[in-house]
Each structure stands twice: as structure tokens, then as C-alpha cells.
Design brief:
The chain has eleven helices and nine strands. The longest helix has 19 residues. It is globular, with a radius of gyration of 19 Å. With 310 residues, it is of the alpha/beta class. It has a five-stranded parallel sheet with strand order 7-6-5-8-9. The protein starts with 15 loop residues before the first helix and ends in an 8-residue tail after the last helix. α5 packs across α6.
């Protein structure tokens, strides 16, 4: 099965069928990553540009590895060493790059909607690697893939997103994706870090972490994005940890084993303690591995591949 869309701009506008197509393809690519020889000729002759206007470690390396595993030609763009410093616009920059005959653009940008803008201006396939506080679709897809691999079908599972919901593109993509596939989604955090009327997206809002722990199958713990906060939204980091930090003591109230997830980077001792992050219930490093497989699936499918992979 091929994707219905020619871009991956977010999970808000994507069909549930496309989500399952990507997750199914990712399963095959995850098996490839365990082989002695991990490279496939699938995207040989295709050129992918990684257009990063914001710093990134995990996402950028994950995309680069996914592209290399599929034998694509790669061009890495960094805004700080480009003509952007001379005043060139995003559209002019990318149109000039596209004139060199490329096939795909993986873009991370601080402005929400930047990938959507590029999709209207270019003929290349566009993949959103994070646009401001808007969406981060491949992170949500790898989260969903990890959940499905560890505890089965997503439908009916209860997933809690804990922490800085207001500034998290990961949270928004998870909300859009998980609700589409039939999961129950809870958000939990201080009132100042949860957008008003977010419950209209079909989710539940809580402000007491101890109240939700007995209900959930998955805790996806989000980083406090202090760099995006323009004012103090809670009294102190110590108080945040006391009320919302995930600790061993808190998890003792669970009624069943809980999958512990975090998109990274982690603030150990703040939103999560080390003994939880490194516990037997944590799949944080598995998320990183699965991210390569999911991004391989997205690249493959957008290039015209089908989910039935040999």
C-alpha cells in the first residue's frame, strides 16, 4: 500500500490508513537494522536535502542514518553557514537548492507552518522534522511504533503525555496520531503548561500526576522547554519535580507495568529520575533505534515505495 499524501507535513491532516502504512513498513525496516549488512539500494539515485534551521542531534542523525541505509545521496544544509546569513529567504534558498535536481527535503524550522509553505512552493517531497511548537510527525510515529511493538495494538491503550504540553510539537503530533488510531490520550501538567480548550481535540486533561498513574499503559514524559518559555510559568524547577516528576515512588501506585517513554533530550532529576529512565520499563533507547526504521519507512514510501517490502 502506498501513501495517499506526497508529503509528511504533520499528523493533523494525515489519514489513519497512512499512519498504519508507515508503521507496517517500519516493522520491515526495523528488521533490516538488525542484519549484518544494513544498507538497501532502495533510494539509490535519489537526493535528499536535510534543511535544518534549528539545532538537532537525535532527529538529524536519525534522518541521515535512514537516508544512508537506503543508499540515498545526502546534502546537509546548516543555516548558520549559508546565504541565510546574507538575508536570503527560506523560499529562495530552497528553490535554488531544488534547481540542482533534488528529490526530497527534510526540514526543521523554528516557524510553525514552514514545511507547509515549502510544499506549496516546491515540487520535491517535504518531510517535517519539527516546525516550531507545531508538529514533529516522525517523533510521534516512532513513539506509536514503539508502543505497538512493546504492548500491542494502539486502539484502546491509554497514553499519558506529561509535562510541557504548550511548547511541545511532540505532544501535538502524538495527540493527532494517537486519537486517530483509537487510543485514549491524557495530558497532564501545570495549568500554565497546558493550552486552553485542548480537550476539544478529543483528549482528557489532568493536573495531578498521581491521579493518572493507576489508569495508564504508557507515560510519555516531555522535556520542559525552558528556551521557548518567555515568562516564569511555575514557581521553581524543584516544585515542578515535586509535583510532576516521574519517580520510582510515584510508579509504585501503578496497577500494571507502565511503559516509560521520553523523546529526549532528558533533564534527569527534573521531569524524570535516573532510576526510572534506566529502569526495566523504560524504552527510551528503543525509541531512538525505532526512529531510524520509521524514518526509513517515510522516505521509502514518499519516494513511491509500497508497504509490502521484501
Amino acid at each position: 500500500m502506498a501513501l495517499q499524501s506526497r508529503h509528511l507535513l504533520g499528523l493533523d491532516g494525515i489519514a489513519a490508513e497512512d499512519i498504519f502504512t508507515i508503521l507496517d513498513a517500519a516493522k520491515s525496516f526495523r528488521e533490516v537494522l538488525d542484519r549484518p549488512i544494513k544498507r538497501l539500494p532502495t533510494l539509490q539515485g535519489k537526493t535528499v536535502v536535510n534543511l535544518f534551521y534549528e539545532p538537532s542531534t537525535r532527529t538529524r542523525i536519525s534522518f541521515e542514518l535512514a537516508e544512508k541505509r537506503l543508499s540515498a545521496d545526502i546534502v546537509n544544509f546548516t543555516a548558520s553557514s549559508s546565504s541565510v546569513k546574507k538575508g536570503e529567504t527560506l523560499i529562495d534558498t530552497v528553490k535554488n537548492i531544488e534547481a540542482m535536481k533534488i528529490d526530497m527535503v527534510v526540514v526543521r524550522h523554528s516557524s510553525p507552518g514552514a514545511p507547509h509553505l515549502l510544499s506549496r512552493a516546491l515540487n520535491s517531497h517535504i518531510i517535517n522534522a519539527g516546525d516550531g511548537g507545531h508538529e514533529h510527525p516522525t517523533q510521534a510515529l516512532l513513539d506509536m511504533f514503539t508502543i505497538r511493538e512493546k504492548i500491542g495494538a494502539l486502539q484502546g491503550k491509554t497514553v499519558a503525555l506529561v509535562g510541557d504540553i504548550s511548547h511541545s510539537r511532540v505532544a501535538m503530533s502524538n495527540i493527532y496520531g494517537l486519537t486517530k488510531v483509537g487510543a485514549r490520550v491524557i495530558v497532564c501538567g501545570p495549568t500554565t503548561l497546558i493550552p486552553r480548550e485542548i480537550d476539544k481535540l478529543g483528549i482528557e486533561v489532568f493536573h495531578n500526576i498521581d491521579e493518572i498513574i493507576p489508569q495508564v499503559d504508557v507515560l510519555n514524559i516531555l522535556r520542559l522547554q525552558l528556551e521557548r518559555q518567555r515568562e516564569a510559568l511555575f514557581p521553581s524547577l524543584r516544585e515542578y519535580h515535586n509535583y510532576f516528576g516521574i519517580t520510582r515512588e510515584r510508579l509504585e501506585n501503578a496497577t500494571k507495568p507502565i511503559l516509560i517513554m521520553h523523546p529526549g533530550p532528558m533533564n534527569r532529576g527534573l521531569e524524570i529520575t535516573s532510576d526510572v529512565a534506566d529502569s526495566e520499563h523504560s524504552v527510551i533507547l528503543e525509541q531512538v533505534t525505532n526512529g531510524v526504521a520509521v524514518r526509513m519507512a517515510v522516505l521509502f514510501l514518499l519516494a513511491g515505495g509500497r508497504s509490502e517490502i521484501n
